[in-house]
Amino acid sequence: MTCISSVTTRLWASAAVTVLATGGAMAHDDAESHYRLFVGDHAEGIVRAIDAESGEALAAFEIDMTPALTPSASGRTLFAVQGDVGKVAVIDTGIALEDHGDHADIMVTDPALLDLVLTGTKPAHVVEGSGQIALFDDGTGDVTLFAESTLLDGSFAPVMLSPGAAHHGLAAPMGDYLVVSVPHEDPEQPRVGLKVIDKAGAQVGEVVNCPAVHGQAQSARVFAFGCKDGVVIATPGQGGAAPVLEHVPTAELGEGNVSTLKGGTALQFFLGNYGSDAVVLIEPGSAAPFRKIDLPTRRVDFALDPAIARNAYILTEDGQLHLLDVLSGKITQSVRVTEPYSMDGHWRDPRPRLAVAGDHIAITDPLQGLVRLISTETLTEVRTIPVEGVPYTITAVGGSGATH
């Protein structure tokens, strides 16, 4: 991540846009901010909706098992993925933001579990792009493609695609195309790469090598995918053409690989894991696209701040929360926020997870039965929210807007 001047320019341009939008919203006397936390229980199939400001428990939705939680890009819906029982529950978060250029309107209603349940053999990754959501079924290799609005207005009629054999895979919508993982001929072996298909399921171009592809994220209109030997960057084609896939090796970084990715919002960059005790900043198109940041001990979870574009937060097993400045590539502050959570043991053991809700970092503390709210400005604990059961997975939705 060496093109700091270009990144800084993009940061301040984005900041100016944010100030203008905020100024427009501030012209409304009834501007409000609302954030909600959705917490998956580790021991039971329950997702709890919590008001992030008051700590009030808004609802508890009973599902079949501890879910992986994936919010839509709008935050209007939340997908509770339960692969082992072949289901994806859909939650209406009750927060809807509507952009009006100079300001946004916010509408707040009760959260609700939709009657519609997405089913499959082993549904897994939910990936959104270009106004479409793709659900990949590991048990069949099939992709379910749909728009978020159809979940809410009763018009759900997804496109079903079968791009390959069953495997632990993913599909990412890009315009009129999808980037999908390619399985090994031997089903016991990891994925071998990525390919582009059109919305009829036909392959476009050649397979690009990406051994054991796992993890993806979008920043602006660009996707990144993790591989055992690097990352694949997918950029939109010119004039509506198919996306262009480029494999970028990470051999220079030493032992490790990228398998989890987060994408910047106001800045175009990616933050990925690298081995057990490092992260890597990725800036596509840079002469030196990777910057590895070593951590004092093993990483538990990490998150990006959508409002403060240069901030990333990393929790390590010693209970410390680290503030990473993505422009300098330096950790600028570290504070103790929980007791140590060892990364030894099963990967599904209850450990903290992070989400950013406005000016707070929300951290589940499973052993204490709490969600801890940490100030993004000072990295000090502001308050705690007691949560029934064993709080584990977490996501945050919300924002600011005018009410009418």
TrEMBL record:
Coiled coil: none annotated. SUPFAM superfamilies: Quinoprotein alcohol dehydrogenase-like. InterPro entries: Quinoprotein_ADH-like_sf, WD40/YVTN_repeat-like_dom_sf. Residues 1-27 form the signal peptide. Keywords: Signal. This is YncE family protein. It comes from Pseudotabrizicola alkalilacus. The lineage of its organism: Bacteria, Pseudomonadati, Pseudomonadota, Alphaproteobacteria, Rhodobacterales.
